[in-house]
Amino acid sequence: MRYGWPGGHECAVALSFDVDAESAFVFRFPEKAGRSLAGMEERRFGVRTGVPRILRLLDTYGLRGTFYVPGYTIVHHTAAVRSIRDAVHELGAHGNVHESLDTLSDKEEVQVLEDQLQIWRSSLDMRPTGYRSPSWELNTGSPAILKRYGFAYDSSLMGDDVPYLLDTPAGPLVEVPVQWLLDDAPMYRYAPGSGNGIADPDRVIRMWMQEFDGMRSENGCFVLTMHPWISGRAGRLLGLEQLIRHMRAAPGVWFATVGEIAEWAASSGATGTLTRDPAAGRS
Ligand SMILES: [Zn+2]
To answer: Is 106 exposed, middle or buried (0-12, 13-18, 19+ CB in 10 A)?
Structure first.
C-alpha cells in the first residue's frame, strides 16, 4: 500500500467548503464591491441559501464537512458560521478579507493572521487549528508563520496527493493537499464577459468520480473544494449527492474532515504508517 490510512482504509475523502461570501470580491475589487449590489448578492447567496442546503445534505449522509471561513464572513454572516459550528463540522481559517498572500509582505501577512484570530476569538470564542489560504496562494515563509501561531495544518498546496510535511524552523507543518481538478470554481464559475462557460454538471461529476476512483486505487487523499455561492445551487448539489453515493458504495473509504486527516498524518508520519503505537507511550 502506498499510503497507510487508519483502519486499513484504501483512501481518504474530505468534503471542504470555502465560505468566502463577498470577501474575495471586496478584496479584489473594493470600488466595484462598494456599488455593485448584483455582485454582492450573487455571493451572499452562498451564506444565505447555499450553506443551509449543504448542511442538510451532509446531515442526510451523516458526513462531517470542513468549512474554511474568512474573518469577513464571520463578522458579516455570524449566524451562518455559527450554524456550521453548531452542526459540529470543522471550521478553519481562510484569511481576513480573502487577502491573496502573494500580495502581502511578511509583516502584513502576520498582521492579517492576527486580525483574523482576534475575530475568531471575539465572534466564535474559538482558535482555529486548520488553515486554507485564500486563492491557494502561499509564500515560502507562510508555513513557519502558521506553525508559530499554533496551526496544525495547511490545506492549500498541490505537491502530492497524500498528506505531507512542510519543514519549518518550528517543526513540520502538515499539508493536506488540494488540486484544481477538485475545485468547483474552474468548473462552474461563470463571469459575464469572461468567455468562461458553465460546465455540464454530468461532465464535472464524471471527472470527480474518475478522480476519486483513481485516488482510491492510489491510496490518495481526495479533498474536494467547493464554494457555497457556486456549488450551493440546487442542481449542483444533486450532482454532489450522486458523487457522495458513488464514493459511499466503494469499499474502504475513510470519510473524514481535513483536520482528522492532518491529525492522522501528524501521528503517523510521511507514509501514513504508525511507527509506534501511540498507546504504547502512555502509562
Ligand atoms: Zn476562498
So the answer is: middle
Could you report the per-residue pLDDT of 102-112, keeping only the tens digit for each? 999 999 999 99
Task: Tell me the HSE value of 161 on the side-chain side, using a 13 A CA sphere.
Answer: 18
In a 10 Å sphere around its CB, with 0-12 CB exposed, 13-18 middle and 19+ buried, how is residue 70 labelled? buried
How many angstroms is it from 176 CA to the middle of ligand 1?
16
**CATH superfamily of the 6-269 domain:** Glycoside hydrolase/deacetylase (3.20.20.370)
Residues near 69 by beta carbon (within 8 Å), at least 6 away in sequence: 19, 81, 84, 91, 92, 93, 94
Retrieve residue 39's grid coordinates. 455582485
Run of H or E residues at 255:
strand 253-255
Tell me the Ramachandran region of residue 98: left when phi exceeds 0, alpha when psi lies from -120 to 50, beta otherwise: left
| Domain-wise residue ranges, the chain | 6-269
Query: By three-state DSSP, how is residue 239 classified?
Result: helix
Q: Cell digits for 185?
A: 470554481
The answer to whether 90 and 130 have CB atoms below 8 angstroms apart is: yes
Q: Tell me the average pLDDT across 185-214.
A: 89
pTM score of the predicted model: 0.95
Which residue's entry shows cell 474532515? 257
User: How many whole angstroms from 134 Cα to the centroid of ligand 1?
Assistant: 5
Ligand 1 geometric centre to CA of 9 (Å): 30
* Distance in Å, CA 60 to ligand 1 centroid: 26
